[in-house]
UniProtKB/TrEMBL annotation:
Presence of keyword Magnesium: yes
Additional notes on this entry: The active site is located at the dimer interface.
Gene: pdxA
Catalytic reaction equation(s): 4-(phosphooxy)-L-threonine + NAD(+) = 3-amino-2-oxopropyl phosphate + CO2 + NADH
Cofactor: Zn(2+); Mg(2+); Co(2+)
Pathway: Cofactor biosynthesis; pyridoxine 5'-phosphate biosynthesis; pyridoxine 5'-phosphate from D-erythrose 4-phosphate: step 4/5
Record-stated family: Belongs to the PdxA family.
Annotated protein name in UniProt: 4-hydroxythreonine-4-phosphate dehydrogenase
Keywords: Cobalt, Cytoplasm, Magnesium, Metal-binding, NAD, NADP, Oxidoreductase, Pyridoxine biosynthesis, Zinc
Amino acid sequence: MTIRLAITAGEPAGIGPDLCVQLAQQAYAQQLVVIADPLLLQQRAQQLRLPLEILEFSPACPATPAAEGQLWVAPVALQSEVVAGQLNPDNSHYVLATLRLAAQGCLDGQWQGIVTAPVHKGVINDALGSNSDSPVFSGHTEYFRDYCGVPEVVMMLATSDLKVALVTTHLPLRQVADAITADRIQRVSRILHRDLQTYFGLPQPRILVAGLNPHAGEDGHLGREELDIINPALESLRQEGINLVGPLPADTLYTPKLLDQADATLAMYHDQGLPVLKFHGFGRAANITLGLPIIRTSVDHGTALDLAGTGQADPGSLYTAIDVASQMASHL
Ligand SMILES: NC(=O)c1ccc[n+]([C@@H]2O[C@H](COP(=O)([O-])OP(=O)(O)OC[C@H]3O[C@@H](n4cnc5c(N)ncnc54)[C@H](O)[C@@H]3O)[C@@H](O)[C@H]2O)c1
Ligand SMILES: N[C@H](C(=O)O)[C@H](O)COP(=O)(O)O
């Protein structure tokens, strides 16, 4: 059966539309349906001097891959003109409309998964009038969690040989320590364990867990979260049969000797785990939201406004995200 995936083109002034146009330059086994304004894609194709024939998507038709040079598109109209590289809050509702259509279509069974090109969190929050203490839009991860009505999801970025999942996602650093609770560690670990089994063919995944503090707290001399919160949470999860090692000092967790014996790693916060992953494989990684009732993957990079419309954007991570979503769909 041909897999059908929806691809949201993301922030219109960023490199998302460029990547979608680049995507159309070859044929795929899957039917890839880009959710975007078709005029934006045509404009960007002209700017990049690349051929593009748009085919309007109909959910009633059987899944059919596009030929080289063609792109299936589910149209959503922009609100305002787009200049590559220049953010315009007037188009933020368009961006959110593409995410809604993608999520609802997946819940309705129109496509088997969603792959997202990057959005700009700042401009969406500018448009929605939120501030740094309580952003209305923290990211796709939290948006799809709320849209799908599930209490917890897990952000995991993965290359072919390294998986980094996070206990907390888009939080100001000041709030991170308070968010590391036994309850959250348990919910995140259970989702990670289950989805590694379900989607990645790992019957008994071995997961390395980082501590929060330097040297994993140095026996309580450099912070007590390991002793008071993380250790007891991991111990009770081990009683459930989840194979967790740690809490380990984060600085040496990501060394070959330990990683060679692990299926995945669990970092306590965004910039503890993701710089390692991106140093290891920026442009070859996918961002995967675990715990959703739908499959959702994404690129490992942002909107790269400096590259929009230049032809310099590397589509490697988008290809990886499509591959990973397809593999996940094939496990269902
Ligand atoms: N999946 C997503 O939606 C996602 C992911 C990360 C960041 N973001 C958002 O993107 C915006 C900009 O973030 P940032 O500046 O921190 O990161 P960025 O990834 O946009 O840019 C960081 C650097 O990497 C380069 N780069 C990024 N993607 C590239 C590609 N495909 N090919 C070649 N070079 C590439 C950029 O030119 C820049 O030098 C922020 O609003 C952030 O929240 C979105
Ligand atoms: N944390 C992600 C990264 O650094 O790549 C990125 O911000 C995307 O997050 P969402 O998928 O939640 O938008």
